[in-house]
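User: You have something folded?
Assistant:
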Amino acid sequence: MTVQPGTGVSPGGEADGTDEVTDLFRALGRQIRVARERAGLSQRELGDRVGYGEETISSVERARRTPQPELLLAVDRLLDCGGLLASAAEEVERAKSRRRVRHPEWFRDYARLEAEAVELRYFANQAVPGLFQTQEYARAVFTSRQPLFDEETVEERVAARMARQDLMSRWPPPTVSAVVQESVLRQPFGGPAVQRGQLEHLLRVGRLRHVEIQVMPTASEDHAGMGGPFTLLTPKGRPQVAYLEVQHVSRLVSDPEEVRVLAAKHGSIRGQALTPRESLRLLEKMLGDSQ
């Protein structure tokens, strides 16, 4: 397989949409902010009441993330917007289909497959998988990248990563399972506040019906994942593929035998990790310890 240069810490991309779509999302973000402030709510308080994270509300208000129709409907009802936001939900659906995301050339093949994935499986021992990252955690990832990105590039990469997460809220959603090394979760990457926000987000995501999160405990005496992180992806109607990325080198693996070996390895890793229920309890404990 061809080996190509990557970003260094899991894939991102550059969000790019038409002026019309961008203006729509900016206008909706401003309307949400005005309604929220009129009600005397913080971004966290609004997020808690409508079932979204603080980072999602912040991203939507700043037009860095697509305002999902479900969010617009919930905010409209809660803040008594008189149907203003609800009426925009249909237009947002049309706008989402027009919005384009430009990815680096080396990442485009994977991005196309990810967009039609029916199943995603991760093993992560360096960072939280990109589809699970909060905005603040993603910003810390791209800010710490070496060689350094300039501030504009950091914000572009963060916005693109958040846009990719729309995959998690489509219907029907892909089946997603992830095994994350415990040390990744305990590291206060980006600072204690970022770590707490990330743990809270993982707890919310881990309770979704189509998602299973498992923690590989540091104390485990068996570990089939010492070779490093990888992703297994199954596109609709097509064979499973694998994706590897480490130290500025990325690789999309389609050879059936190589994919089979990685799939078997992932099965062993899942068997050695805590169960999803045990993992959620550990996340709750870690969040309590971080307060």
